[in-house]
TrEMBL record:
Belongs to the cytochrome P450 family. The chain crosses the membrane at residues 6-23. This is Cytochrome P450 1A1. Pfam families: p450. InterPro entries: Cyt_P450, Cyt_P450_E_grp-I, Cyt_P450_sf. Keywords: Membrane, Monooxygenase, Oxidoreductase, Transmembrane, Transmembrane helix. SUPFAM superfamilies: Cytochrome P450. It comes from Amphibalanus amphitrite (Striped barnacle). GO terms for molecular function: heme binding; iron ion binding; monooxygenase activity; oxidoreductase activity, acting on paired donors, with incorporation or reduction of molecular oxygen.
Length: 125
């Protein structure tokens, strides 16, 4: 029995044994959560994400972007440390920042079909 199977078995056993403490709605919600989580539990990401500076748990890298008057100045500093392509966590949203012409051309022209989905979130003004 691998570790994932052991964890799933332990969680299901605990839910069964403690079921008398939960209301009917709580049991249904927990079962839905397990049903959504279990298929994803054994999967590993197929692509390696770009490097990213250290981020706070809830707000991500928003603090780092607020250290200077303009966020692009902070992004330029981060690109000097991490390279032309790096990731940022902006609240709950993961973002990829591209900073040099060769990478921008690759993202927008060469592989434009792969990168055409942009999130709709508030930007600074």
């Amino acid at each position: 029995m691998d570790l994932l199977s052991a964890v799933v078995f332990a969680v299901l056993a605990a839910v069964h044994l403690l079921g008398w403490l939960l209301t009917k709605e709580q049991k249904a919600g927990f079962q839905r959560l397990l049903a959504d989580w279990l298929p994803l539990a054994g999967r590993r990401p197929t692509r390696r994400p770009p490097p990213r500076p250290w981020a706070l748990p809830i707000i991500g890298n928003m603090v780092q972007l607020g250290l200077k008057p303009n966020p692009y100045e902070c992004m330029a500093d981060i690109s000097r440390r991490l390279g032309a392509v790096y990731g940022l966590k902006l609240g709950p949203t993961e973002a990829v920042v591209v900073n040099d012409m060769a990478s921008i051309r690759e993202v927008l022209v060469t592989k434009g079909d792969h990168f055409d989905g942009r999130p709709n979130f508030l930007r600074y003004h």
